[in-house]
Amino acid sequence: MSVATEQAQVPRRSRQELVRVTDLVKHFPITLGIVFRRQVGAVQAVDGISFSIRKGETLGLVGESGSGKSTTARLLLRLLDPTSGRVELEGEDITAASGSRLRKVRQEMQMIFQDPYASLDPRMTVRDIVGEPLVVWNRWKNGGAARVAELLERVGLHPDHANRFPHEFSGGQRQRIGIARALALQPKLILCDEPVSALDVSVRAQILNLLAGLQRDFDLTYLFISHDLSVVRQVADRVAVMYLGKLVEVADRDELYRRPVHPYTQALVSAVPIPDPIKERKRQHIVLHGDIPSPANPPSGCRATRLPATSPSPWRSSPRRRVAQAMRAAPGIRGRPGPTGSRRPGRPARTARAPA
Ligand SMILES: Nc1ncnc2c1ncn2[C@@H]1O[C@H](COP(=O)(O)OP(=O)(O)OP(=O)(O)O)[C@@H](O)[C@H]1O
Ligand SMILES: [Mg+2]
Q1: pLDDT in tens, 162-200
Q2: Over the stretch 120-166, which tens digit does the pLDDT of each residue have?
Q3: Which residues neighbour ligand 2 (ion) by CB within 5 Å?
Q4: Among 84-88, 228-232, 351-355, which range has the highest average pLDDT?
Q5: What is the C-alpha to C-alpha distance for residues 4 and 214, in angstroms, rounded to an integer?
Q6: CATH number of the CATH domain containing 247
Q7: Which ligand 1 atom sits closest to the C-alpha of 242?
């Protein structure tokens, strides 16, 4: 029995953790001045998030534009250095990894990008693009060309496509090339940053099916980033909801969609259409006001200040355990700070008003 098939027998909940992120922070400094540069502020792109991903699991990361999803993925890959916090891969702290150790870490993690047009070098053939990781890791001489052909076939392309350039492919085919490249080094974790957002609906379904098939065959672990909750519902085992650099809720997929605890999650879930016109007409939609605030100057206290005052209270219908989890994930859920920031600590909001 292959390793992948053996692991697939183990229920997801009892599998080992592949990634653990603890209190991860990334603040980008805002500087002024040309000769004497001085810091005048910071963009709080990621502001103290913690989560874990088990082997063979898909964690969906959802949130509006600018909430810090891509920054989180770049921090995991160590394309960015965190301001503080800790990232562990299979129990090993990789936050300060450098040199050959960092190269090894990057071999275990790969990324699939949002834009299939911008993420492939137009001057390279598909063979060069997919085979580049093998060349970098000195594996090309060991049957590199055959490996490229095998990968192309596995992602639904023809081995002859290896001689073509990216502009000769459709968007869906280009995304398949990106996936083949990500698979070249047999990674354990794939960070999918909005992999289907730029594709039309039918191609989107093909790519999602392909990702699911690859996960089964190679026992891959995914961090699946998207702003589209209906896509995440199809692919994820658990879902983390991000807002303005913070995780407001992390829960199992079905539980999150059935009974979202945080009012912000409730607003997002209420925006997902139901394919039943009668149910859809009866549903109450929670509409968020305005745009996401600037992460350079986030609101104090809980950051989700765009909820209508009438949004349902998270304490009414949710199991206590989930409320406690949401509170731990986003302490501001406990009460709404007044205009002067006079929130009474430790007391949940008592009315049906959004605690924001
Ligand atoms: N290198 C950088 N320097 C300064 N600010 C940055 C940098 N990278 C990202 N940011 C800021 O961090 C915030 C989060 O950006 P990020 O790209 O992580 O958002 P996102 O959730 O992926 O959004 P989208 O859904 O639009 O891709 C944004 O306000 C962005 O302007
Ligand atoms: Mg992004």
Answers
A1: 999 999 999 999 999 999 999 999 999 999 999 998 888
A2: 999 999 999 999 999 998 889 888 899 999 999 999 999 999 999 99
A3: 70
A4: 84-88
A5: 11
A6: 3.40.50.300
A7: 21
Which parts of the chain are beta strand (E)?
17-32, 38-54, 58-62, 84-89, 92-93, 109-112, 189-193, 221-226, 238-243, 246-252
Question: What is the model's pTM?
Answer: 0.84
Closest-lying ligand to the alpha carbon of 63?
Answer: 1
Q: Would you say residue 192 lies in a domain?
A: yes
Report the distance separating Cα 279 and Cα 124, nearest Å: 50
Cβ atoms within 10 Å, residue 250 = 23
139 burial level (CB within 10 Å; 0-12, 13-18, 19+):
middle
Tally of CB atoms within 10 A around 92: 10
Atom of ligand 1 nearest to the CA of 114: 27
Task: Please give the Cα distance from 326 to 170 (Å, whole number).
Answer: 42
Count how many domains the chain has: 1
